[in-house]
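Lab manual, section 2.4: Encoding a predicted structure.

Procedure: take the sequence of the chain (182 residues), apply the prediction step described in section 2.3, and record the output as structure tokens. A sample record is shown.
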Amino acid sequence: MKKTLPTINQKINIAKSRLFTIEQLDLTFNNGVTREYERMSSSSNGAVLIIPMLDDETILLVREYCAGTHSYELGFPKGLIDNGEVAIEAANRELKEEIGYGSNELIHLQRVTMAPAFFNAKMDLFIAKQLYSEKLMGDEPEDLEVVYWKIADYKELLSQSDFNEARSVAALMLLVDKYRGG
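Recorded output:
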């Protein structure tokens, strides 16, 4: 049974940054209960995350600075979809900017949301195969460290203290499931 969405009585922008707008929603649920919610609304066209596969057994990751945790984190290349791009184009561009490879075969794995109770952002996950060397200048303030990892050793990757970003973990598990015929 599909539930009917609450009615939005009022929507007010209460804060705005370069990347996000915080909205206040005044809602009425179908049972008459009213609530005030706050959510972040992204001003982007969405985002992509790419699992680059050097060969059938080896994936590439990047270690990069993450301001939210003020730490270096290990994960997959990712970035925003620029105006005029579709997700698959953004995925190939991000690969070239972050790891110095393009891909002749990008496979859409899944679309995921991030904290949907508070945030309306969506991210398309891709597998990149048939890599070729090509470097584009990106917007990173420093070169990213590229880390090679065997898919068979995915449990060891999951135990790494700097591999804990939920989207990268989800992408890895979707890849492992795909390789196991799931």
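Check your result against the sample. The CA atoms of residues 45 and 86 lie 9 Å apart.
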